[in-house]
Amino acid sequence: MIKHREVQILHALLVTGSVSGTSKLLNVSQPAVSKALAALEKRIGFQLFQRTAGQLVAKPEATYLFEELDQCLKIIERLDERVKNAQGEPGDRLQIASLPGPASFLIPKLLEEFFGVKTAHRFLLSSRTTPIIRDLVSTQQVEIGVLVNPPNSTAYEKFPTPNEYVCAMREDHPLSAKLLLRPVDLEGIPLTLTSRGHIMHEQLATAFANDRVQFNPAHEVPYYIPSLGFALAGFGVSFVDTITAWSFDNILKAKGLVFRRFEPQLLDEMAVISPSLRTLPTTAIRFRDFLVERMSAMKSLY
Predict the structure, then answer these.
(1) What are 241-268's pLDDT values in tens digits?
(2) 3-class secondary structure for 191-218?
(3) Do the beta carbons of residue 93 and residue 81 sit within 8 Å?
(4) Is pTM beyond 0.70 here?
(5) Can you tell me the distance from the alpha carbon of 151 to that of 255, in angstroms, rounded to the nearest whole number?
(6) Per-residue pLDDT at 113 exceeds 60
């Protein structure tokens, strides 16, 4: 069996190519490095390096092990961080994966509200697609995921936070005087939507078909934030979620757009998930619950 210290030393030897380089990298004495290497080679029964003029030239057997050694060290580093997180030590790194909309403005704002900007905690916030977020949470690589329509799974806990769609348009748009819009109001008007196949696109197409009015999805965007730019530029009406609308009004504090409710009500099945196969740090649980509460309240803002 290879010991943890031997993994570190062997990995460093392969990276630096010398005992002296490994000594400096790991902050241990050169005799200690040489002794550990000799002991390892004796125990496994073959040499890993060819000694040549003070340098160590890795033999094929050692080179073959490098990728596994590298992965092993990364796993150990992650394990160390998990242990620290479980202990709730100051300086913990809360890891969150989210869709672009909430990740852009809402989550940073809520982190500031919950922890304060002078917190000792560190944050890793990544913007990902729903399938990747689901995988990251299921494999316990992040504590919190924000995504849409996750299926039930034993790998994570699910907290639904349904999110309503609203219409975004310029302040001078003819429809801005109406507080509630229906398909008949938008008949033939160019719409900016997320891509075909997205649940919002399908729900809108059904709503227009049911009312027998012309549905005109003129422009497509990958997610909601770019659609605000289309609305500001005057390209008809955009459909966005209430999180995006709230971010425009309250974080960006921007001008030029108004948001109007749409009937029939259209909901995005957004949810917050967290791993169920391990115990989360208390801080992560408290922030997750705070996030669920605040996201759930977004639905009634417009």
Answers:
(1) 999 999 999 988 889 999 999 999 998 8
(2) EEEECCCCHHHHHHHHHHHHCCCCCCCC
(3) yes
(4) no
(5) 38
(6) yes
